[in-house]
Design goal:
By secondary structure, this protein is of the alpha/beta class. The chain has one domain: Rossmann fold. It is about 35% helix and about 25% strand. It contains seven helices and ten strands. A six-stranded mixed beta sheet has the order 6-7-8-3-9-10, with helices on both faces. It has a four-stranded antiparallel beta sheet with strand order 2-1-4-5, with helices on one face. The mean pLDDT is about 95.
């Protein structure tokens, strides 16, 4: 394992029936590194993210987190790993509508056994820095799209994950709100020393990240072919 490497996918192949979603992908994620994944719709970006995050088992290849095989773990172990070492931000509608914003953020801590009062206190600390001061008691339906995604960012980071995965997290927002939200995501993960793997269509967002990979037809294009 090379210096500072956190997550490593090698030779990843994933088929859905006759469709080849991943055709042999290698991706290494270093500690604290932010990586943008770009590429046309259907090129395999989400499948790659899901394989790296232990959500989907690749048909071939391997995924290691700090040298530990993820793809061969039992589902129970993989799900514990996702809860403790990874954070997730998806496009839309991922907050539980009946819970207050602060309870949504506290949830991953409570699932990990932190008592409710302590979890909520810890969760509240994220609101000010993410520009959400005063929103603690609102339900998701009482938040704007950008605010809801910032709550989702807090929820992804609250457990101190090694890697945050975000799949087109601003795809449902207007461009300017999307930019603000993405900048907050990149900065907040950096501040917390977490790595970030983010799928985005926005070249501006890719520029804020440390590196960009382009996916085409289930493969990563050589770095020289990626225009920045
Ligand atoms: N659960 C699934 N069942 C069948 N085909 C799938 C499934 N997930 C993805 N695919 C197929 O795999 C390919 C890559 O999909 P995906 O990773 O979602 O692409 P992207 O995120 O880049 O849009 C597409 O052809 C898609 O139709
Ligand atoms: Mg996708």
């Amino acid at each position: 394992m090379s210096e500072g490497m956190v997550l490593h996918g090698r030779g990843l192949v994933k088929r859905f029936g006759p469709a080849v979603a991943l055709a042999g992908v290698e991706l290494a994620v270093r500690q604290g590194e932010t990586i943008a994944i770009m590429g046309p719709s259907g090129s395999g970006k989400s499948t790659l993210l899901h394989c790296l995050a232990g959500i989907t088992k690749p048909d071939e290849g391997e995924v290691t987190l700090l040298g530990r095989r993820v793809d061969t773990m039992r589902e129970r172990e993989r799900s514990a790993l996702r809860r403790t070492r990874f954070g997730f931000v998806f496009q839309f509608g991922q907050l539980l509508p009946e819970l207050a914003a602060e309870e949504n953020v506290a949830l991953p801590l409570m699932l990990g056994g932190v008592p409710r009062a302590k979890a909520v206190t810890q969760a509240r600390e994220w609101f000010g820095p993410l520009g959400l001061g005063g929103m603690e008691h609102r339900r998701p339906g009482e938040l704007s799209g950008g605010q809801a995604q910032r709550v989702a960012i807090a929820r992804a980071l609250v457990t101190g994950p090694a890697v945050v995965f975000a799949d087109e997290p601003t795809g449902a927002l207007d461009q300017s709100t999307g930019h603000d939200t993405m900048r907050i995501l990149v900065e907040a993960t950096r501040r917390n020393g977490a790595s970030l793997v983010v799928v985005t269509h926005d070249p501006q967002v890719a520029r804020w990240c440390d590196s960009t990979v382009e996916v085409r037809d289930g493969r990563i294009l050589p770095a020289a072919a990626v225009a920045r």
